[in-house]
Fold:
Amino acid sequence: MVKENLAICLEKLKVSAAKAGLSPSDITLVAVTKSAALPGICEAVDLGVTDIGENKVQEALLKFEAVNAYAAKRGARLRWHMIGHLQTNKAKEAVAMFDLIHSVDSLRLALEINKQALKINKVQDVLLEVKTSLEQTKSGFSCDEVSGVVKEMISLKNISVVGLMTIAPEVSDPGQARPYFRRLRELKNDINGLRILSMGMTDDFQVAIEEGANMVRIGRGIFGERT
Ligand SMILES: *Cc1c(COP(=O)(O)O)cnc(C)c1O
Structure:
């Protein structure tokens, strides 16, 4: 099933990339494995998936070594993405594991990531999570805060802000998510030095790509509905 699902996602990605004037290789597909069991994840790796997204450190720890070992046997090196809310007390484990943390939503967290990255002599790439809609439940910086936060973080030598991430509100028609994606793209364009725009999930990634996403996070679309 992963094979068919992935093929459908890649076809959709290709169509949307073309609409945005991009080639499919300009867009990173992060396969979100939070619901998936090892066999499904390994199948995805066999099919060429190189970027794995998890929303919880503890869940990622359960899969990290086994999936990396599987990939290594096939000569592949995976990149791991932390996409969920990160508690400061998990920053150490996150920095040890993840190539990109999409969910930096406070300066306090950024300081802790910087501190932990310094300890292992790493420069941790991160995205700032931005609340492009006004739901109370969401974490993230407000649009107005972002450029100031980017400036403050320049002095942190072991953390590098490489882009922005947002989660669009749940809407009945994916087209309704368009303004939120557009807002994030405009924010990114206003700030020098940002290259990654992580937006779009199973239900709305095509709209996100049309609006400039170059990284999409797809779970159910690849691994099926979460049970
Ligand atoms: C679960 C999750 C996704 C993937 O969602 P799907 O609807 O399964 O594609 C993407 N981003 C974040 C932050 C998530 O938690």
